[in-house]
Every structure is written in C-alpha cells, then in structure tokens.
Amino acid sequence: xxxxxxYPKCTTCAKAKxxxxxxKIEFELRDIKLDKPTFEELTDWNKRxxxxxxxxxxxxxxxxxxxxxxxxxxxxxxxxxxxxxSTDGMLVKRPILVGDDFVxxxxxxxxxxxxxxx
Length: 118
Hints:
- This protein starts with a strand and ends with a helix.
- By secondary structure, it is an alpha+beta fold.
- It has helices at 11-22, 39-49, 62-66, 69-72, 78-85, 109-115, and strands at 2-6, 27-31, 96-98, 103-105.
- Helices cover 40% and strands 14% of the residues.
- A four-stranded mixed beta sheet has the order 2-1-3-4.
C-alpha cells in the first residue's frame, strides 16, 4: 500500500489527500509531526526518489529559517543532513508519497498522476 506522509494542517497536504481520494487511490496516512521519518527511511527515500537530498528540506518552514539552514546546508555532509532531517518532521518537505517503486516529494499533480497512472 502507498504511504502518504503529511502534516494534516498543511494546505498542500490537504490538497494532495483530496486528490488521492478523488482518484480512488488507497493509502496509509502518516502524520510527519507525530511519527517523524527515521534516518534509515530518509536514506532509502532519498535514494529511491533520485532527488538531491536538499529537496527533502521544507525550505518554507519556520524551523528551517530559524536554524539558518539556507546558509548551513552547503557545508553539511549527507549524513549530517539526514541526521538533522530525522530530528523533526517539520524540517521535511511534504507531502511524501512512498510506493513500491517510487518516492515523490511535494505535491505536483501531473507527476503524481503519471506515477499512479491516473
């Protein structure tokens, strides 16, 4: 089953959830704030997504800004970034859709439709 990792109060996550429901796609919902991704999950998702690790950061979040990560990420190793991401779900870009053969970060309706054949 597809995992839908989101923050329920996020408007983009709500829009993505509605899209999944409208397209009759079954999913398992996981609240990223209550059940934050682990180092191992993030490592796996990053590899499977084929995205640069920086794309996993919620750059519009308050925590990202308060930690001045815009200026600090470039000097961090991948392990340091993964460790940081695993400390707080609010640092992680969302929603994340995890399927058997894909990981999508952020809601881009056309990309989701392509991956889910909708």
